[in-house]
């Protein structure tokens, strides 16, 4: 997985249907304070281990990512695509309950009975800056 794709997925966590009951916590300082870059350890110029915590109610994830810097284009089907950059080549994760007792029950009912014309609730996007900044620092 490209590191930018990983960061985009984490940044969009508040819009995930699976976690919609906790979307009201998006601006809660406890949730944003949980996003923490714990360490970046290099094993050479093209290999790194990143340890981080991600507040993704109802869980707090503790992730260890192994990153590999790819410097040549990779084959994707029949076309060569420029895929230089840092890639997550392995991920290990553990979680503990986090703000799990605070789902928005009213919003759960609203989501079940009222949806937008596209069938999905709209939610604001909050970028996950710590991991993105860490990946940028690697390059």
How does this structure look, described?
With 139 residues, this protein is α+β, with helices and mostly antiparallel strands. Helices cover 24% and strands 35% of the residues. The protein has four helices and six strands, in the order ααββββββαα. The strands form two sheets. It has a four-stranded antiparallel beta sheet. It has a two-stranded antiparallel ribbon with strand order 4-5. The protein is elongated, with a radius of gyration of 17 Å. The protein starts with a helix and ends with a helix.
Estimate the helix proportion, in percent: 10-25%
Widest β-sheet, arrangement of strands: 1-2-3-6
User: What gyration radius follows from the Cα positions, in whole Å?
Assistant: 17 Å
Tally of helical segments: 4
Pattern of helices and strands: HHEEEEEEHH
| Main sheet record | 4 strands, antiparallel
Low-confidence stretches: 107-130
User: What number is the mean pLDDT?
Assistant: 76
Write the layout of secondary structure elements.
Elements (H helix, E strand, L loop, with lengths): L2 H9 L17 H6 L1 E7 L4 E10 L2 E12 L3 E3 L2 E3 L3 E13 L7 H9 L15 H10 L1
Helix pairs in contact: 1-4
Describe the structure concisely.
This protein is of the alpha+beta class and 139 residues long. It contains four helices and six strands; from the N terminus they run ααββββββαα. Helix 1 (3-11) packs antiparallel against helix 4 (129-138).
